């Protein structure tokens, strides 16, 4: 499905993994370096939609246009806004949770820090990028305290973009926030072979945590 954003942003692609008996919707945005067809995005969508939650994926304009750089955050935050409004219209009675892999989740958080949507009930981060690698800081989290919705942070214990001690400090200042640490996982939720875990097991764990949290908070 194509969605026209506006004359400046152009069109983007949206795909839906619809659950026949869905009672809620999860919108998932991709990370900075890979689009909505990345293995992680497609597998998470399938696992979650199998459990009665329709999953919506979309590309940011820069990804749709084949560019590598995300460009201005403003454009991608506005894309989130338009996508949410579109899904609210498509499904006028269902509650919605927004989410994103890394950059995609961070862009959603900026929108929700400034704007409330009546039927948006929470946000899930698949690896919140708290800081650049090796540059530990909480600066990227300053706006999160403005979000009044429940927030779930799914973070790898080996994530070089999110020092866990700093993440736990951030959590203390947030409303209705929870964190789930995925042991041995990095920012992409890859785990070393010595961990004894497969990527399929990690994906299932992420999906299960998301599903349980959505059901608890709706």
Overall description:
- The chain is an alpha/beta fold.
- It is built from 6 helices and 8 strands, in the order βββαβααβαββαβα.
- An 8-stranded mixed beta sheet has the order 1-2-4-3-5-6-7-8, with helices on both faces.
- It is globular and about 45 Å long.
- The mean pLDDT is 96.
List the helices and strands and how they pair.
Elements lengths: L1 E5 L3 E8 L6 E6 L9 H11 L3 E6 L2 H4 L8 H18 L5 E6 L1 H12 L5 E7 L24 E6 L7 H8 L5 E6 L16 H19 L1
Parallel strand pairs: 3-4, 3-5, 5-6, 6-7, 7-8
Antiparallel strand pairs: 1-2, 2-4
Helix pairs in contact: 1-6, 3-4
Brief summary of the model shown:
The chain contains 6 helices and 8 strands; from the N terminus they run E-E-E-H-E-H-H-E-H-E-E-H-E-H. It has 218 residues and is α/β, with parallel strands linked by helices.
Which descriptors apply to this entry?
8-stranded mixed beta sheet, alpha/beta, 218 residues
């Amino acid at each position: 499905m194509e969605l026209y954003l506006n004359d400046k942003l152009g069109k983007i692609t949206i795909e839906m993994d619809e659950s026949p008996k869905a009672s809620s919707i999860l919108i998932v945005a991709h990370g900075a370096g890979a689009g909505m067809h990345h293995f992680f995005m497609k597998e998470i969508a399938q696992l979650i939609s199998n459990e009665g939650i329709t999953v919506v994926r979309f590309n940011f304009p820069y990804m749709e246009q084949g560019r590598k750089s995300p460009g201005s955050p403003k454009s991608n935050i506005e894309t989130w806004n338009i996508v949410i409004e579109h899904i609210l219209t498509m499904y006028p009675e269902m509650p919605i949770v927004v989410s994103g892999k890394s950059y995609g989740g961070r862009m959603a958080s900026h929108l929700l820090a400034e704007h409330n949507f009546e039927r948006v009930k929470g946000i899930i981060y698949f690896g919140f990028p708290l800081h650049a690698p090796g540059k530990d800081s909480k600066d990227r989290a300053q706006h999160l305290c403005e979000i009044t919705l429940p927030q779930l942070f799914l973070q790898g214990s080996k994530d070089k973009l999110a020092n866990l001690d700093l993440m736990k400090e951030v959590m203390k200042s947030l409303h209705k926030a929870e964190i789930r640490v995925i042991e041995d996982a990095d920012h992409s939720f890859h785990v070393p072979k010595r961990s004894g875990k497969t990527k399929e097991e990690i994906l299932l764990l992420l999906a299960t945590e998301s599903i349980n949290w959505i059901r608890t908070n709706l």
